[in-house]
Amino acid sequence: MARITLFPTMNDQPSAELTRRNSWLGLPVAQPVEGTLVQVVAHLPQFGRQSFTMSSVNGTEMAVNPYLDMIYRVPSRHGELPVPVGIVSKNYRLVDHHLVLRTMEEVLADFGIDPHENPC
């Protein structure tokens, strides 16, 4: 079975055991997801990209960094806000997890393996 670990939202309160067992760079993560490739894809977060900007102290002007972009997690539930996750060079290639797994799904299908039926 495929097994991925997702980042928690700000509202998630991980247990002490989860924090101890499942962490990334010392930060708690959500429980692993297991299932078929199709089931796992449904749980993957999506990410977006925008210019790395900052408003002036009085809020009337906006400064844009010409060399950097911000990567953010797209809200997955109603009422959630985007969450910034990193700053990258304008040359950075953001590869969508969903696209990678859809490509894997196509390759598996080419080999006669049904990603809807077979656990990863």
Looking at this protein, list some descriptive labels.
2 domains, three-stranded antiparallel beta sheet, alpha+beta, single chain, two-stranded antiparallel ribbon, elongated, 120 residues, 7 strands
How would you characterize the overall build of this protein?
The chain contains three helices and seven strands; from the N terminus they run βαβββαβββα. The protein has 120 residues and is of the alpha+beta class. It has a three-stranded antiparallel β-sheet, with no helix packed on it. The chain has a two-stranded antiparallel sheet with strand order 1-4. The N and C termini lie close together (4 Å). The model is unreliable at 1-10 (pLDDT under 50).
